[in-house]
C-alpha cells in the first residue's frame, strides 16, 4: 500500500501544532492500512517532537505526493497563513491527481479576509471533508454544495498516561499567547497577580514562542512532549477560546477557562457542559476570581468522562476518509481571479521542481494540460518561460515574460526573470531598467542591487558597481535584523512553496 501524507503545521515551533499532528497520526494508525509521513517547514524541530515519524520538507512536497495514496490536511486553520498553506498543499495534490481529505478542520470565526475567501474553494473541493465544529461544517457545505461531517477536535484522541491529581498548592496555568494579547492592567492579570502572591496558589505561564513579557513564572518548551506533561499536570488552564491546548487539557481533567473577546464563543466549553467557564477579556478581577472558584468545583474525573464521549465522536473522522479513493479534477468555475492566480503559482512551483530534477517531460505535460485554462495567468507564463529558456529559446521566453509583466506589473519573479532574459539577449540597458523596478518592488532584498552592480561592472563603471553592491550588503543586513526581530514575517506567497 502507498503511504499517506499528512499536511500540518509541524515545525512551526508551537507544541499545540505538534499535538494536533500526533492526533492525526493516531487516527490514521487506527484506520489506515498503510504507513504515514508528514510534510514540515522545519525537519529538525518536527523530528525532535516526533522521532518515530518520517518527514519531508516543503520543497519536497511534489516528490512526496508522487508516492502517496492520499493527502490528509489537518490543522487549526484560524489564520490566513494556515488557510493559505493548506490550500497550497491541496492545489499541489490536485495537480498531481492525488486525492485529498480535510480532516476535523477549524476555520476562522471572525470575518474572512479577501485572500481567505479566494482560497476556500481549494479546501472545499477535497474528496473528503469533515469539520471540528458545526460552524465550519456549514461554511464548507455551502462552498462545496454537499454534506460535511462534523467530528470532535482530533486532539481529544491523545490518550496520554493518566496523571495524578496535582498536589497542593494548586497550579494555575495560562497561555503565553493569551497573556500577550491581554493588557497588564486588565482584571485577568490583576486576579492572577493576587493568586501568584498567595501561598495557596501558583501561577505559571506556558510560553510557546509568543514572546510573552510578564511578571509570572514562565516556562518555554522545545518539544511538544514536555509541553504536554506540563499542561496535564495543572489544576486550571486559561487560554483563548477553542484552543488546541484547552482541548488537550480538558481531556486529562484540567479545568479549562476560556478567555474570550467580545462576540467570541467557546464551542468546546459548550460541548463538554462547561459553558460558564468563560472570562471576557475585559472582565474585572472579581469576575475572574468567581470563574476560578466555579472551575475548582468541577471534579477532574467528571470532566474526563465528558471528554470521553467527545473522543468517540472524534473517531468519526475515519468515516469520510474511505471516500478519498480517487482524485476529482479541480472545478475552475469555483475559483475567482485570485484563486486562479494561486493555482497558476502552485503549477509554476511544480514545473520548476520538475525542471530542477531533470523531469522535462513531466514539466511539459503539466504546462500543456493546463494551457487552455491558465495560459493568461502570469505565473503560467513564467513557468512556460522557464521551460523555453532551458531549450535555448530566449526570444520566445522574452515575449512570454512581457505578457506576464503586462498582466501583473508587481509580480517580482516575472520581472526578475525578464531582466535575466534581457541580459542573455545582450540588452544590458533594458535589463538594468527592469532590475531597478525589481529593487523598488522588493526593498528588503539584495538581489536587484547585486545584479545592477554586475551590469555596471560589465560596462566598466567600477564606482557605480561598488555603490550598488554596498546597497546590496546594506539590504542584506537590514533584512537579517528584521527577520531576527520578527518584524519581517515569512510569507507563503502566491502559490509557490
Number of strand elements: 13
Overall average residue pLDDT: 86
Domain unit count = 3
Percent range for helical residues? 40-55%
Point out poorly predicted stretches: 486-497
Radius of gyration: 26 Å
Counting DSSP H or I runs of 4 or more residues, the number of helices is: 23
Task: Report the major sheet.
Answer: 7 strands, parallel
CATH class of the largest domain: Alpha Beta
Note the gap between the termini.
28 Å
Structural class designation: alpha/beta
Query: What proportion strand?
Result: 5-15%
Main sheet strand line-up: 3-2-1-4-5-6-7
What is the molecular shape?
A: globular
Quick structural gist:
The protein is α/β, with parallel strands linked by helices. Helices cover 52% and strands 12% of the residues. The chain has three domains: 4-157, Rossmann fold (3-Layer(aba) Sandwich); 171-313, Glycogen Phosphorylase B (Rossmann fold, 3-Layer(aba) Sandwich); 337-485, Serine Threonine Protein Phosphatase 5, Tetratricopeptide repeat, CATH 1.25.40.10.
What is this structure's SSE topology?
Blueprint: E1 4-7, H1 15-31, E2 36-40, H2 43-49, E3 54-57, H3 61-66, E4 70-73, H4 80-95, E5 100-105, H5 114-124, E6 128-131, H6 134-144, E7 149-150, E8 171-175, H7 176-180, H8 187-196, E9 202-207, E10 217-220, H9 224-232, E11 236-240, H10 244-251, E12 255-260, H11 267-271, E13 278-280, H12 285-296, H13 300-314, H14 318-321, H15 337-356, H16 360-369, H17 371-374, H18 378-390, H19 394-407, H20 412-424, H21 428-441, H22 447-458, H23 462-485
Parallel strand pairs: 1-2, 1-4, 2-3, 4-5, 5-6, 6-7, 8-9, 8-11, 9-10, 11-12, 12-13
